[in-house]
Amino acid sequence: MSATATRHDWTLADVRALFELPFNDLLFQAQTVHRQHFDPNRVQVSTLLSIKTGACPEDCKYCPQSGHYNTGLDKEKLMEVEKVLKAAEEAKAIGSTRFCMGAAWKHPSAKDMPYVLQMVKGVKALGLETCMTLGKLDREQTQALAEAGLDYYNHNLDTSPEYYGNIITTRTYADRLETLSYVRDAGMKICSGGILGMGESVDDRAGLLIQLANLPEHPESVPINMLVKVKGTPLAEEKDVDPFDFIRTLAVARIMMPKSHVRLSAGREQMNEQMQSLAFFAGANSIFYGEKLLTTGNPQAEKDMLLFKRLGIKPEEREEHDDEVHQAAIEQALIEQKNSALFYDAASA
Ligand code: SF4
């Protein structure tokens, strides 16, 4: 078997064997595969906006937005279309190429769909790629989103089918797979991944990646999240994931889905710069950027660009104009670093 072949028939034994490789051998293999399909010094950047926050009827044990847990999160109704478009304009101005809109819903209601479709059309008209995560979809909703111009639909599988019931009881794994199949049938791209650090075993991590890699087509985007432990959620006291196990999982994902963008996703704020750079070496080539407040002075975004510069990484799909915007952000961040000795701050958040 060639390490670089695009396969859809992964077995647990195959994937266990990858997880059991010595760390350096695994990373070498992942980096070799990565270089066959991608420029190793390019990372795709997306911006994420919550368009409807909190009071979600689902009971995902990791999620502060679930209405089942008291996390003190401020609930917000569906955001006005104009505000969403303004945020998208700001995301574009700081260099994002994809704008992801997330709503804490079990599924979109008939009442909300027209607004959601207006958001897709408006963001698309700004020249950005569009992505949404709205929960379970039926065929008609999926088709309407595709016709409005939605490029990507995010719908995570979260973990293995075997472990899923420990994390979520209000929907089934089969529901998730059904929505993913509707998205594919409607011609949209899939963003689907999972979360590490929820008490799952290595076999569960393997099981998640097998589900994703054995889909008829690999998801174009595979977010691998590190659990962010939020007080009030049932997983608030979970044990930390060993950082090397996290990197291993990214590397295995890269080998199994060689042409997909593997996204270093939630939890990145808790990773120091060394760990993030190791993640890029393992094959991660996508991040969320400026995901909290979309203002041009977003310090996290500037810090990300500074890390890219130190690593010689350039954002993917960047126009000349955007490079200039990033250059200005980097220069500003360098000035601030000199003032605050930020270089010596191990925490990259
Ligand atoms: S469906 Fe999404 S928003 Fe709702 S509880 Fe689960 S992860 Fe949170």
From TrEMBL:
Keywords: 2Fe-2S, 4Fe-4S, Biotin biosynthesis, Iron, Iron-sulfur, Metal-binding, S-adenosyl-L-methionine, Transferase
Binding site for [4Fe-4S] cluster: C56, C60, C63
GO biological process: biotin biosynthetic process
Positions that bind [2Fe-2S] cluster: C100, C131, C191, R263
Region forming the signal peptide: none
Enzymatic class: transferase
Domain Radical SAM core: 41-259
Record-linked CDD domains: Radical_SAM (cd01335)
Pathway noted in the entry: Cofactor biosynthesis; biotin biosynthesis; biotin from 7,8-diaminononanoate: step 2/2
UniProt cross-references to SUPFAM superfamilies, sorted A to Z: Radical SAM enzymes
Chemical reaction(s) catalysed: (4R,5S)-dethiobiotin + (sulfur carrier)-SH + 2 reduced [2Fe-2S]-[ferredoxin] + 2 S-adenosyl-L-methionine = (sulfur carrier)-H + biotin + 2 5'-deoxyadenosine + 2 L-methionine + 2 oxidized [2Fe-2S]-[ferredoxin]
Top-rank taxon, per record: Bacteria
Record SMART domains: BATS (SM00876), Elp3 (SM00729)
EC number: 2.8.1.6
GO molecular function annotation: 2 iron, 2 sulfur cluster binding; 4 iron, 4 sulfur cluster binding; biotin synthase activity; iron ion binding
InterPro entries: Aldolase_TIM (IPR013785), BATS_dom (IPR010722), Biotin_synth/BioAB (IPR002684), Biotin_synthase (IPR024177), Elp3/MiaA/NifB-like_rSAM (IPR006638), rSAM (IPR007197), rSAM_sf (IPR058240)
Cofactor(s) for this UniProt protein: [2Fe-2S] cluster; [4Fe-4S] cluster
Record's cofactor remark: Binds 1 [2Fe-2S] cluster. The cluster is coordinated with 3 cysteines and 1 arginine. Binds 1 [4Fe-4S] cluster. The cluster is coordinated with 3 cysteines and an exchangeable S-adenosyl-L-methionine.
One Pfam family hit: BATS
Subunit structure: Homodimer.
UniProt-listed NCBIfam families: bioB (TIGR00433)
Family affiliation: Belongs to the radical SAM superfamily. Biotin synthase family.
Function summary: Catalyzes the conversion of dethiobiotin (DTB) to biotin by the insertion of a sulfur atom into dethiobiotin via a radical-based mechanism.
Protein name as catalogued: Biotin synthase
